Amino acid sequence: QVxxxxxxxxxVHTGGSLRLSCVVSGSxxxxxxxxxxxxxxxxxxxxxxxxxxxxxSTYYTDSVKGRFTISRDNGKNTVYLQMRSLKPEDxxxxxxxxxxxxxxxxxxxxxxGTQVTVSS
Length: 120
Known about the structure:
This protein is mainly β. Helix content is 0%, strand content 52%. Strands 2, 4, 5, 6, 9, 10 and 11 form a 7-stranded mixed beta sheet that branches. A 4-stranded antiparallel beta sheet has the order 1-3-8-7, with no helix packed on it. A hairpin with a 6-residue loop joins β4 (32-39) and β5.
């Protein structure tokens, strides 16, 4: 059974940084794209970033480009999301999710999420 566990969330002030981690168990990350999305109360789910396995290509939504960086360590079955210059509107529950091979494929598995709160 594939499981994803996110960690690294917390409370930061505007302009602060956090690094989120997503550990995948029950499967290797071979041929798997991993992405992050967030869900804030009353708002639609927002896809943030994604990274492929075969060439580590990365994709970002406009709202986080230049502030967030996604990376992966296949040996540790872990994906990271480095977040900088955080804003109050970044407050949400952050989830990681797998997609088969490419970032434009449907979501396959996701974790329970980690809360990020940015105070003004």
